[in-house]
Design brief:
By secondary structure, the protein is mainly beta. Helix content is about 15%, strand content about 40%. The chain has one domain.
Length: about 230
């Protein structure tokens, strides 16, 4: 190898070392390959957190939105949300209240939301429990996980396994970012890897929604406090 080539190689290594030394180790933001920030902070559930999901049918948009707002919270003991589906003209009817009590160790997701549902449930949707996420982090599998009741056709009843670690695009506080997430159960669930806020960013039900009555969702915007 000629000396100019050796000098060029040494110079490149020196530049790489300087970049490593000046980059803050505690930074909560990394730069994705296409220019969007990757958010590695873990902002907590809090009163006023608001998520707008796109409702989906067989992975296609249904043309309306699902709005979820945190009304009160004592995480992981419980969280109380208001939720509402937008009308076809974009307007919002009166919201429905649901109190979710399974966010510490719950094993049932329960993705069905209806106007006549009981006001309190130990199902965890639109989150998974902290224990489920802990198992996915440490062993890539959460045992004895149920997607919903046995009356729902094609749902998962067994172990929830991580198939892929992905970066999920979403508008966070008005800017486009990527959130680190786990894709599980043959793509049925994409879960934000955030122990303080394990939101299911995307849900793709198996089966025929018009028969099961189970529709999917995909997070579009999240409004949240904290260091992001």
């Amino acid at each position: 190898m000629k000396k100019p080539v050796l000098w060029a190689l040494a110079f490149s290594l020196a530049i790489a070392l300087v970049v490593c030394l000046v980059t803050p180790l505690g930074s909560h933001i990394a730069i994705a390959s296409d220019g969007y920030d990757v958010i590695t902070a873990e902002p907590a559930l809090h009163v006023g957190m608001h998520v707008v999901f796109e409702r989906t049918l067989a992975r296609a948009s249904m043309g309306n939105k699902w709005h979820v707002t945190v009304q009160s919270v004592s995480y992981p003991k419980w969280v109380e949300i208001s939720w509402v589906w937008s009308r076809s003209d974009g307007s919002l009817p009166a919201s429905t209240i649901r109190r979710i009590t399974g966010l510490d160790r719950g094993r049932t997701f329960g993705p069905v939301f209806g106007l006549n549902d009981p006001p309190e449930t130990d199902s965890t949707a639109p989150w998974v429990s902290r224990e489920v996420l802990r198992e996915l982090r440490t062993g890539k599998v959460a045992y004895s996980f149920k997607m919903g009741s046995v009356s729902l056709a094609g749902v998962l009843a067994g172990d929830l396994k991580v198939e892929e670690e992905v970066l999920f695009p979403v508008d966070l506080n008005g800017r486009r970012v990527f959130l680190p997430a786990y894709k599980c159960a043959k793509g049925q669930l994409v879960i934000w890897n955030n122990m303080q806020n394990p939101l299911v960013l995307e849900y793709r039900p198996i089966g025929v929604p018009l028969i099961t009555g189970v529709f999917g969702w995909k997070a579009e915007t999240i409004s949240i406090r904290g260091e992001v």
